[in-house]
Amino acid sequence: MSGLVAGSFSSLLGERAEAAAQTTPDKLRGVQLLVFDTFGTVVDWRSSVIAEGEKLGKAKGLNVDWAAFADRWRGGYGPAMNRVRTGELPWTKLDVLHRMTLDGLLAEFKIEGWTEAEKDHFNRAWHRLHAWPDAVEGLTRLKQRYVVAPLSNGNVSLLTNMAKFTGLPWDTVLSTELVRHYKPDKETYLMPGEFWDLPPSGVMMVAAHMGDLESAQALGLRTAYVHRPLEFGSARTPTAPEPGRFDFMAGDFRDLAAQLGA
User: Disulfide-capable partner of 155 in 20, 93, 217, 239 (CB 3.0 to 4.6 Å)?
Assistant: First the structure.
């Protein structure tokens, strides 16, 4: 985005914020940009990956515990990114990290006989994740008052394909790939404000994960927790934070939109 375009857009946002100031709570005053954790907060990664595995497994005649497979795949997410963050690996986008983890899981689960095209297609299941039922409606409401964008470890193509697949109405796509730093590196959380010429307090991080919000909060961003009790399945319901831990707490995106005046 050019400086002229970014400046004009920021000016437009400022005018909207000023017009709404009389009805805005103090903890929301000045917020113009909402950025969202994506896996688990916006999209239901677990059910989506399980369904993709079951479909391919049926076609290949496989008997696999796809729920366990999905959990193990997601479980490799953090360690793979940490290899990049610690310098063990050079910058490597998430699609490639997912494929590295997938190759190991195929051996672990004794899945054989897949073609390279089938492996690549399954790896891109992360591009085809379905949104939570409230996500599209909530985001559509929120974008009438704020700029809305993912702030995700997913690479740009992954996030773009996911948005087109499931109908997410982002205004733009913000990926850690743009700064080549995975969360929770500070460069990721400070990126949106730098792009939009906003102080950290002009940006709100929205997530279902307390660690994500705590990292953003420590750098001065506003925060909103959205509870996703089924992210890890019915047997692993996360505990919601205590009241007041973050600026806002919501049951879903519709609730968040109502609280934020959208």
Answer: 93
